[in-house]
Amino acid sequence: MSIQEPSLQQYRKKLGKLEALTDKPTHYCQACEHGELTRLIASAIENLGIREKAVMIDSVGCSVLAFEYFNIDHIQSPHGRAPAIATGLKRVRPDLVVYTVQGDGDTLAIGLLEVMYAAIRGEPISVFLVNNAIYGMTGGQMAPTTLQGQVTTTTPYGRDTGFTGTPVDASKLLSTIDGSAYVKRVSLAIAEVETARGKSYSIKNILEAKQAVENAFKVQMMGGFSFVECLSSCWVNWKLPIMEAKRFVNERLIKQYPLGTYKDNFGIDKR
Amino acid sequence: MTERVYMKGNEALAYGALKAKLNAYFAYPITPSTEIPETLSKEFGNEEYPDFKVFLQAASELEAISMVLGAAAGGVRAMTATSSPGFSLKQEALSYAAGMELPLLVVNINRGGPGLGNIAPEQGDYFQMTKGGGHGSYRMIVLAPNSVQEMASFPKTAFDLAFKYRNPVCIAGDAFTGQLKEDIMFPRIEPAEYDVSSWAATGAKGRERHIINSMNLDPEVHEKHVTHLDQKYKAIQRDEVRYELYLTDDAEIVVAAFGITSRICKSVVNSLRAEGWKVGLFRPITLWPFPYDEVHKLTERAKRFLVVELNTGQMVEDVRLGVEGRATVSFYGKVGGLLPTEREIEDKLQSVAEEVSA
What we know:
heterodimer; A: alpha/beta; seven-stranded mixed sheet; 9 strands; 19% strand; B: alpha/beta; eight-stranded mixed sheet; five-stranded mixed sheet; globular
């Protein structure tokens, strides 16, 4: 933890009131990273001055109520189809900045074709994937990203990957597609760190994610398809205490899904 | 192109859409509808159609109609075309489009079913098109052309209705009306301008944000939304019923048919009239809203109805609802891609007429 790094409280205060957000309190569970991503997207929209031309496609899953929170135009999508809806809108209104926020089930199970083909065609849209290794909204079923041995309501004895197939590595998969311009995996879970004054929390991950979200929009505006996979926790459905769930992300999920830039055709991360 | 032309129904529909200022077409190939995207891709970039800005081939029927949904939400004229098995896959987005109140056009060139069926003409998707093939309480306006001429002129009507009511509209062709080549006079189409400024997703610049949504978790709010849709459907039923009556003023027997079948039935009516029969033709042009009142009026004189369809009996149920027991309703159907001959229909009418006198 470097000295320059602000505390969580300082960081939240610095973001302040965002015009791209409404005043509505979110329905997300306490400490869920969905709330964090909401703020990161809203702050990126403000920093880039694109609120008046941003349109969000609301997918099915925990992000289905996002229209309550973002003070921008919204279009709802059937389960998994958000990248196709985004494509239709962006093709007819190329001046807009169009993005989706989707869960792992939405993106990688029912909607795998839609996200793959949006990447294959290199649609200038941004897809933000919240990967928490479980179906959150429906109450904790196995997702494409559920780990080997992980207990869910549909794998009560632990996921047997010999039987169900192995966890889907979305960033790796999408980085192999010629049409994708920017693929990045970040973690939205704060990490516990030991400091001289005792236990504290590092928001290094979140600051990195903030940059990735902003870069994703920049890549879209440069004409490329951008994809940011955000590792997140779901303590409610994982049935873990909040901080243990965060630890699970930064210790276990990260091993299966290593963080980093998987693709960066425009060299945006190095600018 | 206002001169006389000789072309296929599917091609005529494509040009009709272009003349109605089509903005975006999202394609997925399926026989027997494929001439529509083929014609449009050929004309893409033609200066004659400056409004035609997007032609995109999707990776699936679901993706294509979802793209139409996104484009429609952007407030432009967007459409796709498909045929029966593909039309089944469109139902998801059509239910959403109805719930989200989006104007869009989907063309269904009906082929044989169920399942893969075959690529020959049928009218077996009548129920799916008119009764709501997707989930929830919604309605879709369905126009049934019976000629290449109407294939050319209906896209404009469809877009007008779609934007007037902010609702999906379906053009219900079949493999005959799609593949048939006829000499037509291309209609002079004056495209309308539609005001989408109060709802389209174009970026919240200098206005409140627009939320295009069909979800209301609060039951009372959702009841309000569904009731609002229902009131809209009632207005459509009141104001948008379209049909054709042919020699029905004094008819004691009425033949009811839509689409290509109505053409055969018209010939039957002509030849039986020459023999002195008091027989007429009733053709619904809007399959939904169905002309129930008109059927009912016909029963003041006509006591026998014969419904002819390329299925095992679907529209006949709507005719019965219109007749309300005031006349007998018989049915004659052909499936598998076969058409009824005039002789077959005449024979059937003969037995219907004998029942009358009995």
